[in-house]
Amino acid sequence: MAGPLDGVRVLDLSAVVVGPICTHVLCEQGAEVIKVEAPTGDLLRHLAGRGRSAGMNGKFLNFNRGKKSIAIDLKQPAGIEALRRVAATVDVFVTNIRPDAQQRLGVDADALRAAAPRLIHCSITGFGSGGPYAGRAAYDTVIQGASGVAGTFAASTGEPRYVPFLVADHTVGLVAAQLIGFALYRREKTGIGEAIEVPMFENMAAYIMQEHLGAASFRPPLGPPGDHRVLSPDGKPLPTKDGFVCISANTDAQAHAFFDAIGRPELKTDPRFAKVAQRVQHTKEYFHIRATSLGGRTTAEWLEIFDRMDVPASPYNTLSSLIDDPHLRAVGMVREEDHPTEGATIAIGAPNRFSGGNTPPRPPAPRLGADGAAILAQAGLSTDEIDALRHDGVLIEGMP
Amino acid sequence: MAGPLDGVRVLDLSAVVVGPICTHVLCEQGAEVIKVEAPTGDLLRHLAGRGRSAGMNGKFLNFNRGKKSIAIDLKQPAGIEALRRVAATVDVFVTNIRPDAQQRLGVDADALRAAAPRLIHCSITGFGSGGPYAGRAAYDTVIQGASGVAGTFAASTGEPRYVPFLVADHTVGLVAAQLIGFALYRREKTGIGEAIEVPMFENMAAYIMQEHLGAASFRPPLGPPGDHRVLSPDGKPLPTKDGFVCISANTDAQAHAFFDAIGRPELKTDPRFAKVAQRVQHTKEYFHIRATSLGGRTTAEWLEIFDRMDVPASPYNTLSSLIDDPHLRAVGMVREEDHPTEGATIAIGAPNRFSGGNTPPRPPAPRLGADGAAILAQAGLSTDEIDALRHDGVLIEGMP
User: Fold this and answer.
1) Keyword annotations for this protein (chains A, B) (predicted)?
2) Rounded to 5 degrees, what are φ and ψ at B143?
């Protein structure tokens, strides 16, 4: 059994999260991913807390499973030349370095596609090339602030803040993988590759506007932007006797079942709550009832009741309890694994299933430069050439 | 010019956001998307605030651009039969109805693929079929609570809450489109379709664990889960004299430039802040300095300074200011458009660019059932058959 991208080869000149999650997904579906790192390694090796050895923290491991690592000094011309020789042998090139740096290294779309017309070149940028912010550097928080992500918190609770995970990096990386899939599909029909430009700002601004342009989608606006149901400051797991429970009761059938469950059947005919349009008008009161009605029973009791009455509900998981969730264990999303150099770890599984075949679990994430010599040999470099690169400090094998 | 999915036909039996954002993306890249709605329409037509006419609010418009709408009563056998006839003519079938309901309607993967072996069937579920929560209903908040999304807020500020946008629906819908692209690629090679299962819980749990398993990735854990930099309660746009600015300063070069910019060059050699590993250890102090150092100048002044010194930075956008952002206007992400029935609106553009061809802007979102008769005729139903469906209230054309 093999995943849908079996046989696709990807060269990944990216770091931190936006590029690595893109190529993680490609790898999970069967692609071979060659990760190009700077001599000191992907910044994420240093930015994300403790591991058992330098540069091998948990966050790095979890975004880089199954990849091969080559560490090259791209400040030396021989390093650039080595990179270009590998690039000539792959199907897909992914990078999140700025367009001017791509040109300086000769790894922009025009340069690489001139030598390899079937190549799909994916450039993840901060801001699209057609507007005044083009070429500016961007990281997750910059994009969260510019695109309205932080603005959703201001509209909800009064204070702008960032989502406590890298939502811009992570989302746009997933989108980049999606676009590469579409380009691979087109290449099967046309025989030629192409260049894809994936600007983070535009993607996240579209995302937030789709969610929250709302009444301001009309000219003149019918009201301020923002979906007030989703922005409700009461948008929280609901407190029970011993914890929290998470519910959704949007349809009339679900809302009525909820009112029955909490022993308030009269609300089913209350003109504020009987129909979906009425509940949308009275979101504040409806959410207040939900937030203050569950204190008399435990989470387990409520889950049993909601399950029986067909109100969508689930337990609330903390970051710690998630690891022990019985469903995640049962489906193989959380399993124990020995890393060849880092010892016992938790491996995160692949969430999706293809009837036409799935990729078997990939090996754990690589140490810096672990596969450099093999990758260069596969690209046609001789043993002497590789030795010279090693000798000149162009090829790095292991954390300095 | 045409997008990479030009010629692909998609039948979409989904509602609210997780399915509609999936097919929105497919449509944006050139696919023809047929949206199947219940007689009263997609729940999102009623759940998301005001429009100029019933069922045509801004959120619905922004998730359903370019689609065709057919409204069918699937409680009547003739409605199911009509749906199955359309399904036999498409490349991709997307649904988020529960597996047992799919079987009852005969639109599960086995049933539809028996009649159309090239069909790609994509089932977005709440929880994967292999675990104890299989078959349970799920909506965005249920998944945010179960998957650790709400738990990231508890780890950051002490209180579990939901992200104020539909991050589970939106993310998993983007992933579903990605997986469909991979399956289309494989179909070009094998000639046969396949079934894809996309469980929301597993996808979002993987997402949060990749971000935050951290030190708990090791057995025994090296520490509690959570990337403390990203969970910092100071993870916010930084206050200036007249507003906020968003920055990122992760590399040594960026952090040193930031210290110079705020007139505190001595911090460049401070053992707490000189190197990335030291700043990670002293995140709290570092973030505190960032949050309290910018009050003396305006946002515009800081942006000019940060631009000059190569510190990634951007203005902070509210939901309102986003619409007027000059970059978004310049690249066509925000433009004025007349909806044929709803009047003057804002249209959100397509964020990504393919050198091999892009889809021209799609028409605005449809009214309920606007294309029903044409879709049935295209699937081979005769005028008499269509009239009979109309007469029996199986085919609905317009909001009741």
Assistant:
1) Transferase
2) -75, -40
